[in-house]
Amino acid sequence: MEVKNCSGDIRDIVCMPKELKLKINPSEVLTFNKDNSNGYNELMASLTFINDYKDPIAFKIKTTCLVKYKVRPSTGTLMPQESIKVTFVLNGMSIKQTDVMRDKFLVLVIPVGDPKDIAEMWKVQWETKEQHILKCKIFNENETVNTWNSYDQNHNNDLEQKVDRLMKVVTTLEMSNRVLSQHMRYVKFSLYIILLMCLFAFGFFWAVFYHK
Transmembrane segments in this chain: where (predicted)? Predict the structure, then answer.
């Protein structure tokens, strides 16, 4: 999803903040290559995440096609100027280039203070988090830049719709979790009140019968 940032540049990022916290190298395009170094014939890609912010940050990685990919690690925290290598594994060797180019990854980033409160901070900062969209492709020596750009232009609407649907699902799940948490607190409070009332009633009847 292409939007303009404050300087007028166009990048594949949603809700771009004034100061980017996460730097991604070498680019925001995942190029999958054949790899059999671990004894398995797999298609793999890797990127380096760098915390280019003054404070620690946390990241999450989501995808439009969960069953097709493995991500290691898919979540984590980075101290200022700390970096981490993230590996993406494509399941299956017979997947077509056009199938992979429809897929995208969504990288969510938030600044964190206390690492113990990361789960709560994801809820609080959900609307202001930094988001990067990573495109996917399979390395092909015969591929030309024009082919990639042409395909990307033709399928841009389809990719945007997938990302929008993913964001709506994630937002709905976050809201449902928040409502459920509030409901659980209400249930606990109600049970506590009922327990106090039972104890009070028991004490009252015990006092009445005891004095008789």
Answer: 189-209
Question: If residue 168 lies in a helix (H) or strand (E), which one and from where to where?
Answer: helix 156-211
Report residue 144's pLDDT band, with 50, 70 and 90 as the boundaries.
very low
Which DSSP symbol is given to 89?
A: E
- Strands 29-35 and 130-138 come out as parallel
DSSP 17-62: -SS--EEEES-SEEEEEEE-TTSS-EEEEEEEEEE-SSS-EEEEEE
Q: Which CATH architecture has domain 22-143?
A: Sandwich (2.60)
Domain boundaries, the chain: 22-143, 145-211
Q: Rounded distance, CA 185 to CA 189, Å?
A: 6
pTM summary value: 0.57
The residues near 5 (Cβ < 8 Å, ≥ 6 apart) are 11, 13, 16
Lowest-confidence pick of 45-54, 90-99, 150-159 = 150-159
